[in-house]
From TrEMBL:
Protein name, UniProt field: Uncharacterized protein
Top-level taxon of origin: Eukaryota
Species, as recorded: Piromyces finnis
Length: 61
């Protein structure tokens, strides 16, 4: 009986997780988002003090 209840619990958890993993809301908006970002490359600008940058370079060797 314990194994049976555990199995049902696992099924419920998997169902809830898969139901919550809706990618970016409704299915209609998803293609529009990809059309807007097809030819775009993200640009990240990071600013850190020069001393920390030098430490980072030293640690990466």
């Amino acid at each position: 009986m314990y194994i049976h209840l555990h199995f049902i619990y696992d099924i419920i958890i998997v169902y809830c997780v898969s139901a919550k993993s809706d990618f970016i809301g409704s299915g209609r908006k998803r293609p529009e988002l990809f059309e807007l970002t097809d030819n775009e490359v993200a640009e990240f600008r990071l600013t850190i003090p020069e001393v920390e940058f030098d430490d980072l370079k030293e640690q990466s060797k």
